[in-house]
Amino acid sequence: MLTMSATTPPARRPRADAQRNRDHILDVAEQHFGEHGVTGSLDAIAKRAGVGAGTLYRHFPTREALLAALLAARDDELVARREAIRTGSTDAAEALDGWLRALTDWASAFDGLPEPLRAAMSAEASPLALTCQGYITTTDEFLADAQREGSARAEVRGRDLFLATLATSWARGAAMADESSPASMADLTRTGWATTQPPCDAPRSVLG
Amino acid sequence: MLTMSATTPPARRPRADAQRNRDHILDVAEQHFGEHGVTGSLDAIAKRAGVGAGTLYRHFPTREALLAALLAARDDELVARREAIRTGSTDAAEALDGWLRALTDWASAFDGLPEPLRAAMSAEASPLALTCQGYITTTDEFLADAQREGSARAEVRGRDLFLATLATSWARGAAMADESSPASMADLTRTGWATTQPPCDAPRSVLG
Amino acid sequence: MLTMSATTPPARRPRADAQRNRDHILDVAEQHFGEHGVTGSLDAIAKRAGVGAGTLYRHFPTREALLAALLAARDDELVARREAIRTGSTDAAEALDGWLRALTDWASAFDGLPEPLRAAMSAEASPLALTCQGYITTTDEFLADAQREGSARAEVRGRDLFLATLATSWARGAAMADESSPASMADLTRTGWATTQPPCDAPRSVLG
Amino acid sequence: MLTMSATTPPARRPRADAQRNRDHILDVAEQHFGEHGVTGSLDAIAKRAGVGAGTLYRHFPTREALLAALLAARDDELVARREAIRTGSTDAAEALDGWLRALTDWASAFDGLPEPLRAAMSAEASPLALTCQGYITTTDEFLADAQREGSARAEVRGRDLFLATLATSWARGAAMADESSPASMADLTRTGWATTQPPCDAPRSVLG
DNA sequence: AATGAATGAGTGTTCATTCAT
DNA sequence: TATGAATGAACACTCATTCAT
């Protein structure tokens, strides 16, 4: 109504109650997924939100769409953290480490979240794919800085590090919550278990 | 009834039936999990095996018990591989690397297998817990050798490496199948992304 | 607003918009019913037409109303065919046969169309009832000619023949599409399966 | 155990309560379909029968399977009627007529029944397909008799007549219940509307 | 010891219709 | 007048687990 940009077509006001509904559903979903993990019942969310299943479905046609919306709402946090890291880091290696830490926290928002995120990495159709792609790009930026600086291995790719943060989140699952692991997945991801590099001609990967 | 071997007591029917049933169920389960992942329907397995659901349940009271039996059947392979590594390795680092590779393959036997394995790591009640524990112990042995040799970081624990192999298997999931990752999870696990060690007083872990 | 034609009263917006909307909905509905049969989703039609569900509902309060409008748009064709038959037929029997053929084609416009048409035959409230009634009347006219000519049985009524064409369309459903039926429903409707007339005092109808 | 034929495997007694359950479900389904037509809710049937949805589904995996079972229960009636017709008819034409009348009644057992029956005529997978096929065969037999006798047109096939009875049932749908049609679909099927045969070289079918 | 019937809540999804805006 | 969000019951179908036989 006021200084609306030209990008939106007629830009009908999204009908205040619809927006309120949507927001409420998101609140409830956040709580429900927090309690029951990302596989929690969608029907239960609708019920808890006091809306019909159809309403939930209209706003978020798939579980992935709902998750994507939930994560979008957290995008601000992650962006803020990224900026804080950019301005506050003394070297690129620490910046990259900080960013990976942020990603790991982000992927740990709900129990089981890493699973659909990983799936989205190879399913372009998923609404989560875009989400992932954006963060992979950011990871690539931090990584490039570190590689320029000489503090990150040249052959590593942002995509790999992103996947590693998902795996780290996954490993953290409720199972390990109680165990304080002095050398965690993330440690390994940074420095590995070996004290020396493998011979150049040997296969480097356990996976082959 | 007719040509009964002498080994069985005077029991009416040799328990060979039950044993054959059990073995057949395992064969079928292996195939079914191979096709549908570890969340495949137990009912379907019973049906494919031509037994009642109750029979399946009697032999393997939980999905975990069935998985544990399936993995037990593969224990021989892994033991053989362990021995081959022990006798064939020139240094402890390569031996450890080889063992982790073997574990990663083992945990990739079925789609979704890493999930219950991770869960079993902190649930002592699970029939899979024992399975895991055995391999963790072996990992500890290989690791201790490497640490003695000075080729593995002192603060790393076998438990952590075992979990890392599960995470690596998990990351391999269909998602990455097509992507040839020049620096895979396993690479990262061995050497990390950093070229240098972090300062001694800095927090080393992304997870904290 | 700008070049408003003189025909419309001082109404704010020419109802041309509404008319165009209506026409567009009809176009889309024709295509959608063509693809998904007459039970296709009305919501989907509204979406494909780019209008709200309420708008569709305003123009066509029921599925029957929408179908009736769709068929009304085809009325011209059928009228033209009727005239062609009237002028081009040498005898009343062939004219009637031609008309029934036209009706059968008409009732086969969409998958499942015969169903609501039959329902409309006894539900005067339906918007399709009028449509049907008109064609029944025409059928009566052709039939009367044939009866006068002596080439149609006296006790047959237009209503019955109309229903028979619906049944023929119904029988044509995908089921028989592949089967070339040497003696089709329509053949039976014209000449029956019997070579001779049943005795006058015998019950003639299978239905009683 | 006793003189059990070799066809059934171990032929475990179907567990009396299961059989009772099955029968009860059939009773309830019959009533429910009678009230709501063949599209009535399966869930509702389960609820009315006091069993879980899974139980219904175990006995009758699809709606068609349930209908087939329902019709199988009526097979006795139809067989009895067939025998009565065979022994009681003076000529093959009347026998065929009687059989078609029986079929029409049979296909009118529930509202909407003709629809899945027609579908089954071209879908071999359907459990109803067998049902239909059996009655088509019987129709062929009656028809052959009539054709030998010279009282049925040579080019007609049992399959066509069976389909015509379905169409007749369909036309009878609630819609026409009130209307007493002096020349019904069935009349038309027997003798057609024409008093004379179409010219031999002319296309005989309205459908072409 | 084995069977397989029963359970029944749960899954995601659809849709005609109403109504707040 | 038109919109499209909301409704919410209904749909077919699944499955791990229990238990009567």
Automatic annotation (TrEMBL), chains A, B, C, D:
Residues 1-10 have a biased composition (Low complexity). The keyword Nucleotide-binding does not apply. InterPro entries: Homeodomain-like_sf (IPR009057), HTH-type_TetR-like_transc_reg (IPR050109), HTH_TetR (IPR001647), TetR_SbtR-like_C (IPR049445). Residues 19-78 form the HTH tetR-type domain. Residues 1-21 are annotated as: Disordered. PANTHER family: HTH-TYPE TRANSCRIPTIONAL REGULATOR BETI (PTHR30055:SF234), HTH-TYPE TRANSCRIPTIONAL REGULATOR RUTR (PTHR30055). It comes from the Bacteria. Residues 41-60 bind DNA. This is Transcriptional regulator. The keyword Acetylation does not apply. Keywords: DNA-binding, Transcription, Transcription regulation. One of its GO terms (molecular function) is DNA-binding transcription factor activity. It comes from Sanguibacter keddieii (strain ATCC 51767 / DSM 10542 / NCFB 3025 / ST-74). It holds the Pfam family TetR_N. Gene3D superfamilies: Tetracycline Repressor, domain 2.
